[in-house]
Amino acid sequence: MNKPMNRAALSLAPEAFDHLMPLHLCVDRAGRILATGPTLARLLPQPVLGRPLFHVFDLRRPSGVADVAALMAHAGERLRLALKPEHWQPGARPIPFRGMAIPFADRSGLVVNLSFGLGVVDAIRQFGLTDSDFAPTDLAVEMMYLVEAKTAAMDALRGFALRLQGDKQMAEAQAMTDTLTGLRNRRALAQALERLSRGAVPFGLMHIDLDFFKEVNDTLGHAAGDHVLRRVAELLMQETRAEDTVARVGGDEFVAVFPELVEPARLDAIAARIIEVLSRPIPFEDKTCRISASIGITSSTAYDRPDIARMEHDADEALYASKRGGRGRAVTHPRLGPATAERRGG
Amino acid sequence: MLGLIIRSFQYFLIDTWGVEAWETVASDLGLPYAGFESMLTYDEGALDRLVDASSALLRRPRLSLMEDLGTYLVAHERQATVRRLLRFSGANFFDFLASIEELPDRGRLVLPDLDLPGLVLTDLGGGAFRLRCFSPIAGAGHVIMGLLRAMADDYGALVLLEHLGAEEGSDTIAIQIADLELYEARPFSLGMSA
Fold first, then answer.
1. Which of A16, A314, B24, B177 is most deeply buried (CB count within 10 A of its CB)?
2. Are A124 and A195 part of one and the same domain?
3. What are the chain A neighbours of B194 within 8 Å (beta carbons)?
4. What is the pTM assigned to this prediction?
């Protein structure tokens, strides 16, 4: 506080107090409440005139102040107060006030002016306060404006971020998908293998190459070829689990990855089943397309540590062994075990 | 220019003239159908091109579209936030008008890039005012006039407005408050529940 200046005492009508400080109260020397400003009165469930100030309010700061004389010693300082629970509006949350006490000129009592501080947003909402509950100099309404404008701006930004995220996910999905078949593409496969090679989960790997696909393309045309590829994709999805990755990695080449599926006999059985379903006739318009598949198999357990390039190379090698062996069959790479499984499908 | 301003015209078009009108204008101008993003900035000509293309398509004078945009910003449900934020400026239309010069500052308080028109109000007495409106946006004065008309309705006031013309980047609007409380104001509470 500035030093008091030598000025004649000003006298103000009570209404002037109400206008200047709608949240004030006046107490007499004994601490009894003489008057409350109109906005403060709105917050109280019952009138408090004549009640002792310290029965209505908890004075939290400064601590240890329990009577008017002590309060006078803290004139001009920032006070922290709250209504005692018996003066809360039913259902309302307690509202903290900040305040300042100034003695009357004749020290016959004091005036305590209050404000909501940051609790103003809560107070306005809870008590339905309006413009006219605040002095025109008070920035309470601007505070509400800011809160609402800030919320609107944040909502706009959040909406923007969500749209961006959605676009990004869609672009990523598109970048990972083979557009003709809807299977994963080479890039997605590389990512899946990379992830698996860093983890502890063992996995099986199949390289699948269609047999007689070129003939379908050459004799029945590209439309038939595309139809066959889409049908193959459907069948591969049917014959694999949700956690497996099936990718189209070339014109008529596919790779399937099977997390936690490494037993040669089981992989071989799956391969045989795939060959069997792919060898069934595929109708296209009024014609029938006939293809089959050759498969090379390996699994991560055949290596000291998973080496993706090695595994792909070995699966490829096994695939060519099955091509050489007469197509329509699956070959497990010898590295996976001495008993090289070889079986005709169909 | 902040996308917020251009986007509000985009939605004015959609909500008033239908999404087909917007899509026609957007494809004429080579814009994506999603349109403008509120929080991005666009080149200064973007709004003009949008308004011109809309004016040609709808066969409506540009300035009348600008005035309708001002009304739309206050009166349309989609723009409820704008209307609420404007109502914080005063308890009645007179208060609102008296503090209208603060409008650009209120905008900048939240979005520092938001360039609202500069406004200078002269009180001629007897409820008559002149409002000068400074903006690089052609027709900004007409947007303000539409907005004032809708705000007067919102406050339940009877107000006569006349656009007195434009010169050197400023428009002048004549305002006559005939009755502050002729109708019931649309409800407004400071503390909209969160």
1. A314
2. no
3. 125, 151
4. 0.69
